[in-house]
Specification:
Layout: H1 3-52
């Protein structure tokens, strides 16, 4: 490879790196928004199903922040 080709390759890698650096937060935001939208749709569907059956939706048990402890073998 000649010097000009190496410079061109270095510049190309730098531009691609900057492109990824600039677009990565936006792509993460889009993925997060889609996940939240799916959660909202599932909650609305569950609420509508509960309303059709005239039964309240069963509350989910709260998750504890404390780790679960297991019994030690004696």
């Amino acid at each position: 490879m000649e010097t000009t080709q190496i410079h061109a390759l270095t510049a190309l890698v730098a531009v691609l790196g900057l492109f990824v650096f600039m677009t990565w937060p936006a792509l993460l935001g889009i993925a997060r928004e889609r996940r939240i939208d799916r959660q909202i749709e599932r909650a609305e569907a569950a609420r509508a199903a509960a309303a059709r059956h005239d039964t309240p939706a069963a509350p989910r048990p709260a998750k504890s922040a404390a780790p679960r402890r297991t019994a030690r073998a004696a």
